[in-house]
Protein: NAD-dependent epimerase/dehydratase family protein
Amino acid sequence: MRVFIAGIDGYLGWTLAQALTARGHEVGGADGYFRRKWVDEMGSWSAIPIVSMKERLEAFRERYGKRLPFWEGDLRSYPFVEQALREFRPDAVVHLGECPSAPYSAIDVEHAVFVQTNNLTTTFHLLFAMKAIAPEAHLVKLGTMGEYGTPNLDIPEGFFEVEYRGRKDRLPFPRQAGSWYHWSKVHGSNNVMFASKLWDLAATDIMQGIVFGTHPAEMGDDPRLATRLDFDQAFGTIVNRFCCQAVIGHPLTLYGSGTQQRGFLPLQDSMQCLALAVENPPKRGEYRVLNQFQQVYRLDDWAGKVAKAADAFGLKTEIRHLDNPRKEQEEHHYRPDHDELTRLGYRPSGDMDAELRTMLARLLPHAERIRGKSEALLPDIRWTGDRSRVSYRLPT
Structure:
């Protein structure tokens, strides 16, 4: 299968390119290096050093014995998107080319507007280019479990059945997003759903939980093939951020009570799920939703897990609660369904605690690199639009 990855230079994109290649697929992709620029804007960098795309592509060819077709450019340019798809002729398109940060979208009006327009425009361009060039290809769009919010009822996979006055219908589950970023994802999901109905497009919307972890072991030890791992307040997901804090002796910082509940899965499980979605497309005209996570945890559960894993390395950690910069429920019901990926063959890869120990072992050699950008660990972006960094001193 020929798979085109939009956003191939990112945390998920670069890992997925290798995972799909290892499964026998032909992979190509595009990127404008926006993730690198956004993280730099936040005063940070990847905890694990990453090389240029030129070096990545050379390493890819050496390891996998084939060239990875790559287009450098901005997905907000329709002619660029159309040209890349026309030249590659994909059987599937994986859309990872959006800005994936709620805090980034809360900085100010410019950032809120950028996240909305970037995420909607890139999705529209891929939809229209597929209609024109690859109408039979399958779109796999990365959504987020955050689209649902935290409703006071169980969360099905995308749809639920209703009956009114003897008539039944299948309706999209109401989305209750909690940030400008998450609303951009909701709007994108609605557009994909409508395009499927309008143009008979086969589409899968992956409502992904919080992903954590370094590159899977099967990617080998060549540092040029490593994927990025961010830890700043805008792009560092909570478990990755906790692990980076642990290796430099920084307290693990929970926002608010830490009783918030979310779905989580390791990076290698995300790769398994995305590959299964690509390899098992829905029928033409079907918009399919898959909730992608391994298990639901409270956020403070992860602080405890990371502290325990760190202790095995002689790292002493403190868990500290900060005033929550976000506007969110901290005590809430949360029970989402996630059966469809299991039906497609998803099997959890292993012990999450073991994954944490693997992460810490890989991050320890980069402790000084993380320490050099430690200010990026603390939040000063607030949902209200005010900015004030927490007053804080690292332990000596």
Remarks:
- The domain at 2-377 is CATH 3.40.50.720 (Rossmann fold).
